[in-house]
Design brief:
single chain, 6 helices, 32% helix, globular
Length: 229
């Protein structure tokens, strides 16, 4: 049986602030007109039967540190419970930029994290805004697979290994329009990939509303399959 997580007062304050922001956002967009979100979880080879994790380092894989930190705080607020401490990597790493495997591993060791949840923006389609008004003639499109998702572009803990391309990638959570994100849960022993969540959202109109809806959807299968409790 895992022991109760030791709380970091500074991280706890940050998570409390994120939770309050999240609740406020949900209150604003909690009506039936919110985005349509669907998430599907899947065990990876050798991952089935994995015990629950109690200290999870949350990573938003994005070249924009501000967008990354915002996503991580929303995600941590959704995962936090009496038996789970969700650790925001932005607050745990010694150096926020660039995002590297070494910095994540240092944070894992310092915080004694038993898992890492890393989320990547895979697809995004949104209306182009030009001159302060929305251009309805067409949209913009970002597809991470064009950068090589299947050919080693992302390494351990989903940290990018081709930084020249990564720095020009779309921010992970400028969430408006239709988006698809992939979240990967790694057991830090190894490390080993044990579980993946594919999340699709349509009709996102505000960033905070999108963050709230998407992170809630990601957390649901993790909790449903008892990876977190």
């Amino acid at each position: 049986m895992r022991s109760s997580p030791v709380r970091d007062p500074q991280s706890a304050s940050a998570r409390q602030a994120a939770t309050l922001l999240l609740l406020g956002t949900l209150a604003l967009c909690g009506c039936g007109g919110g985005p349509q979100v669907r998430a599907t979880g899947a065990w990876q080879e050798g991952g089935a039967g994995q015990k629950s994790f109690s200290r999870v380092l949350v990573v938003g894989v994005s070249p924009d540190v501000n967008q990354r930190c915002a996503f991580e705080q929303f995600m941590a607020a959704q995962m936090e419970s009496d038996s789970v401490e969700a650790i925001v990597s932005c607050f745990a790493v010694k150096k926020r930029e660039p995002l590297t495997r070494e910095s994540i591993e240092e944070a894992v060791a310092a915080k004694q994290a038993d898992a890492v949840l890393a989320t990547i923006l895979v697809d995004r389609e949104w209306n182009v805004e030009e001159g302060g008004s929305r251009d309805t003639r067409g949209g913009a499109y970002y597809k991470a697979t064009d950068a090589g998702l299947a050919t080693g572009y992302y390494g351990v803990y989903s940290v990018p290994v081709v930084y020249g391309e990564f720095q020009t990638a779309a921010p992970i959570m400028t969430l408006t329009g239709d988006v698809q994100v992939t979240s990967k849960l790694y057991d830090t022993r190894g490390p080993a990939l044990v579980y993946t969540v594919e999340t699709e959202a349509k009709g996102i109109t505000t960033r905070d509303g999108g963050l709230a809806a998407v992170t809630e959807a990601i957390a649901n299968p993790l909790r449903g399959d008892k990876l977190i409790r």
